[in-house]
Design goal:
- Two copies of one chain form a homodimer.
- With 349 residues, the first copy, chain A, is of the alpha/beta class.
- Chain A has two domains: 154 residues, Isopropylmalate Dehydrogenase (3-Layer(aba) Sandwich), CATH 3.40.718; 161 residues, 3-Layer(aba) Sandwich (Isopropylmalate Dehydrogenase), CATH 3.40.718.
- In chain A, strands 3-2-1-4-11-10-5-6-9-7-8 form an eleven-stranded mixed sheet, with helices on both faces.
- In chain A, helix 7 crosses helix 8 and helix 7 crosses helix 13.
- The longest helix of chain A has 26 residues.
- Chain A is globular and about 60 Å long.
- Chain A starts with 5 loop residues before the first strand and ends with a helix.
- Chains A and B meet through helix 9, helix 10 and helix 11 of A and helix 9, helix 10 and helix 11 of B.
Amino acid sequence: MSSSHVLALDAMGGDNAPDMVVSGANVARVRYPNLQFRLFGNAEKLEKLLRRFPKLAQVATVVASDTVVGASDKPSVALRQGRRSSMRLAIDDVQEGKASGIVSAGNTGALMAMSKIVLRTLPGVHRPAIASMFPTTRGESVMLDLGANIECDANNLVQFAIMGAAFARSVQGVRRPTVGLLNVGSEESKGHEEIKRAADILRASELPLDFHGFVEGNDIAEGTVDVVVTDGFTGNIALKTAEGTANMYSTFLRATFRRSVFSKLGYWMAKPALLALKRRFDPRRYNGGMFLGVNGIAVKSHGGTDALGYANAIGFAFDMMTQGFNEHVISDLARLSGGAADAAKAAAQ
Amino acid sequence: MSSSHVLALDAMGGDNAPDMVVSGANVARVRYPNLQFRLFGNAEKLEKLLRRFPKLAQVATVVASDTVVGASDKPSVALRQGRRSSMRLAIDDVQEGKASGIVSAGNTGALMAMSKIVLRTLPGVHRPAIASMFPTTRGESVMLDLGANIECDANNLVQFAIMGAAFARSVQGVRRPTVGLLNVGSEESKGHEEIKRAADILRASELPLDFHGFVEGNDIAEGTVDVVVTDGFTGNIALKTAEGTANMYSTFLRATFRRSVFSKLGYWMAKPALLALKRRFDPRRYNGGMFLGVNGIAVKSHGGTDALGYANAIGFAFDMMTQGFNEHVISDLARLSGGAADAAKAAAQ
């Protein structure tokens, strides 16, 4: 069994861990019959849970860990005090080559800090970024960074563009992804210096992506581009703003159907269609914050998700592992620096 | 007639100007019987339009202007070449005291540049900001800056907080508005330096507002605070992201009801309730970008709105004019600098 089919799970991370994690792994087991799991956490609890899922038990190994990283622990504290935690040992497992990816529904900051320290970054990557998929009018897109880097320079944004496009190519199967830089206007003169410089570099480079130029906030949900690139501050706020707006809308919609006997009847008539709409926006479908740029595969699941959502996070890790995501990033980054060297050479002549 | 009841309208700004502007003024005339209008633009066209609205003609004066600021003109070009434009002459009117506010559905950048140059800022204000109201789960809130200032320091953010709270108090009638700084987390350690310093200043100050601390993107639609404060880059992207998400949701909802005979029937049963929902989110209700901090009242209407939306933008200007918005800002800013002086004195002892 190749390690590209072994996934380390931080079984103690998440609101309903370890039950949710083990049930999620059991859902993923059916979808990915070649996948094997290494479950890190309280051995007694995990063994007991596995007795409920005998088929999962056949492809899962329990690895005992003593402690758990707290949901509100600072990353620096988790790094110092969490060396024997389920999260850390699962990441160590990837570093040691026993697994090729890790999924955790635990503390995001700690997971990113540990992944960076233990796995380090891919050759050429300055800073890893968090990416996530989201529904759009046209289908699905990916956005990064969602909060790993509060301040970014032009080169960080260019690398995010490359990593986001590599994700769209390898995992989503988009042959030549369109990439947009999130800005306050689409004209070239708009925005701050770093974003303009990033646009200049992307425009001049020869990469396996179509640089669309600047996109605005409304372009996110419209699906104007396959990959939306921004700094971690803006990306985090944009993503949560979109989630909040969608929640408000569905809250009001539910209240609307409760307004009268007629609207209640209307709801029952339209129920199958409305449930299809609900499934379309189901946050569990998009559950997975991919840590792009670390030397290994690391995916963060929402802490409050259920088994189905967790299985989807496992699916993202599986796809990145088996579709050669990291190899794409390495070769595209080399292409960029090669192109930059050529440009410098041409300029010097 | 006091000038606080005279409004200058850039009758040539907007997609369907001047028809939309004159029709909008006619809607506002009914709502605000004391309001008088000075319409800037093509005199022939405006006189002709006013013949359709004899009651509006009684409270409106046409002021001829030669040119129109183009929708895509750069602010610097508009400033140099637009001295005889409807937009500029309307702003000059406010500066000369003939009107106490201006509404325009024209070029936002040009309107802000001209307002700053001609009207200047209120005493103590470093930089004006663009604010807008938006619907939330709990009611309505106001957010600023929405794009006037791409980069902001801590003092800018503090002033935006004061201006936003003064708007909520004077125009929305919120006795003691809650104010939140938009950030990537609610813990004090989150975010960049400027936002942390702004929080420190607001926490230490004695102002007629309740400083809530940091809020996140999802808090915008949840209505966690009355006033959301952020820099113009983030605010512009957050606002457009929310608009885009709401549009996507209603696009899918429309498609959902068209799925089957049953869902179509369901739509007809629930139609009154669904129309109430639609009205709740009607962008025309929130049409008005208030330029807070300029020495005068300036409100930007969406270019693509209709008479009803334009009348709402006029309503915001009217409320700011008559509810003493600018006086609130001046006295609150004085209070802040007084408080800061006291704090410095205390520290020196």
